[in-house]
Amino acid sequence: MKNKTISPTAPPEDHAVTDDSIPVNVDMSPANNSFHSRRNFLNRLGIGIAGGAAIAAATVTGSQPVIAAVKSATKRKIQYAMVIDTRRCIGCHACTVACKSENDVPLGHNRCWVEYTEKGSFPNVDRSFLPRLCNHCSKPTCVDVCPTGATYKRKEDGIVVVDDSKCIGCKYCIHACPYDARYLNPVTGTVDKCDFCFHRVSQGLEPSCVNTCQGRARIFGDINDPQSEVSQLIAKNAHSVLLKGMGTEPNVFYIDADHSDPRDAIYQNRYIRVETHRKEKERR
Amino acid sequence: MDHELIWGLPVIGYLFLAGLGAGALVTSTSLLLRGKNNPDYFRLARYGAVLSIPTVALGTALLVLELGSFQSGFWFKWINLYTVINLSPMSLGSWLLILYFAIAAPYVYTFLVPNSHSEDRFASLRRNLAYPCIALGIGVAVYTGVLLGAMPARPLWNSPILALLFLISAISTGIASVLLSDWIAAKTGSAKWCAENLGWDRERDSSGKANAEYLLASTDTIFIGFEIMVIFLYFMYAHLTVGDVRMSIKVFEAGGALTTHFWVGVVLIGLMIPAILEIQKILPRLLRGGPYVHSGVMIVVIPTMVIVGGFLLRYVIVVGGQISKLAGI
């Protein structure tokens, strides 16, 4: 399959590193050789010196690949991510059901849900599905506002979790999450949300929703590993994240997602309806 | 509108009461430090001090009542707040409240001892405690706005001017509550009871009373003026931008869910009518140095309207922030 770069606006010499941590199609790049030799050289120098060298090199040459190389050499951490290929989603809600049973989600709440978007008028109609879950953002606003430190981003795998023993249920993070991924668990009195099934993931299993997905619309893996399926998928496909403008840097990527919202109906002058299939009948 | 409110009346009540109490404390310290041992300034300062602790304490209790852990039967889990300190506005705010109670409590106590007057044995302690109390009162009032303003996902709240709006409204309602409690204490006879049993305020000075009330009324007018200005700026910036903030301010525009609450409740009842009535009362003295006419309207009607307006301001902001939406997905 022909490789595509992630950023169509990037200048040609930046093809070697299309993202901070995902050096795909390195071999095809004209800047390939210098990139590799510099990277190896910097690796030999060690992390601390490499950082300084990169800044110096960047100042002198303005060379982006060097900075990217140092970044990838210094922080090669696991960041679990999910790619949702909406072309494969049939809206069967199996992920919702699997999640609810796996995580004992109380009645009336969802960690995982599938939204239906209906557009147009007969005969030109369209229906698309948008599976939703916590985006496990790289810059999670929910973590920033937690007063007790109960919600945090796990250092080992980048999963955003809630520590039930610390959470007091102040609901501050529910406000802070632009994706409306959090809810108050009425049984425990704590805030609850998708945790990428880290009890399964840490045992080498996939999250329950991924495991159950009939069409393999959900793909789970480490975004920082360039060989992983999620890395390959977002490298080779046009993709998007939800509410990119919020700057939260989500780690749930969508392929061919329909971002239509009922509010677009006003200026697009057509019928758009979203069914959220959860207690909150409208999106945030 | 289909979302149920995540923060309801308890939080609105907290924001209002904490603002009112902090404002009353700031009013009290201001009257004490500017009063120069005048017994009537001291008397009004005492009302502010007496109000400052119970209102904030009641508000904090409401806040605990709203916690999911408390509602699920984990009644003391909120103590987890005091196991860490981080940059979350709520964490900073809860530590600030502890500091508030710790410093304001001895300050209030110096007013409550029997036969307390402006030159008793606590006079210097009282004045020394008054200075940190100003900072703490302003801190608690500002923090109620910062609490809401910290989140980009709530565009109506995510405004740097919201904390300033809440601060001004807090001091305004604090002044109003001091004036109103003076009237209530006189009407219900509790002032007389205190004078007989606790030895408070035996001596009165009618010119001092008028001076103190003039000071409070004119300060309140200034703060109402500022509040109108800040609301104007808040509204105009939201109206003239695009995107999330523009979408969210629609709850206050014509046809919005809270339009009447905002324009009639907050702007008209809470700001415009009190401002007009107060200006009418203070202008003779302000411009011509004439007498300040003490009247029932001044100390009952206007403070009541200001307090109602202050509550409605918290109400429309807290509810409006939750029913307004982000643009798109």
Helices and strands in order, then pairings?
The complex is a heterodimer of chains A (284) and B (329).
Chain A lengths: L31 H14 L1 H15 L2 H11 L5 E6 L8 H10 L9 E9 L2 E9 L8 H5 L5 E3 L6 E3 L9 H5 L6 E3 L4 E3 L5 H4 L6 H5 L5 E5 L6 H8 L2 E2 L11 E4 L8 H5 L3 E4 L9
Parallel strand pairs in A: 1-10
Antiparallel strand pairs in A: 1-8, 2-3, 2-11, 4-5, 6-7, 9-10
Helix pairs in contact in A: 1-3, 2-3
Chain B lengths: L8 H26 L4 H28 L1 H4 L17 H24 L10 H27 L10 H29 L1 H8 L8 H35 L3 H5 L10 H30 L7 H28 L6
Structural account:
The complex is a heterodimer of chains A (284) and B (329). Chain A has 2 domains: 12-74, no CATH class; 80-275, Alpha-Beta Plaits (2-Layer Sandwich), CATH 3.30.70. In chain A, 29% of the residues lie in helices and 18% in strands. Chain A has 10 helices and 11 strands. In chain A, strands 8-1-10-9 form a 4-stranded mixed beta sheet, covered by helices on one side. In chain A, strands 3-2-11 form a 3-stranded antiparallel beta sheet, with no helix packed on it. A two-stranded antiparallel ribbon of chain A has the order 4-5. Chain B has a single domain, classed as Formate dehydrogenase/DMSO reductase fold (Up-down Bundle). Chain B is built from 11 helices and no strands. Chain A binds chain B through residues 130, 141, 144-150, 166-172, 174-178, 184-191, 242-243, 245-247, 259, 261, 263-264, 280-284, and chain B through 1-3, 6-7, 66-74, 77-78, 80-81, 83-84, 86-91, 94, 150-154, 243, 247, 321-322, 325-329.
Query: What is the general shape of chain A?
Result: globular
Strand content of chain B: under 5%
Q: N- to C-terminal separation of chain B?
A: 17 Å
Question: What share of the residues of chain A lie within helices?
Answer: 25-40%
Radius of gyration of chain A equals: 21 Å
Distance between the termini of chain A: 38 Å
Unreliable segments of chain A (pLDDT under 50, ≥5 consecutive)?
Answer: 1-36, 49-54
Helix content of chain B: over 70%
CATH class (first level) name of chain B: Mainly Alpha
The overall strand count of chain A is 11
Q: From the coordinates shown, what is the CATH architecture of chain B?
A: Up-down Bundle
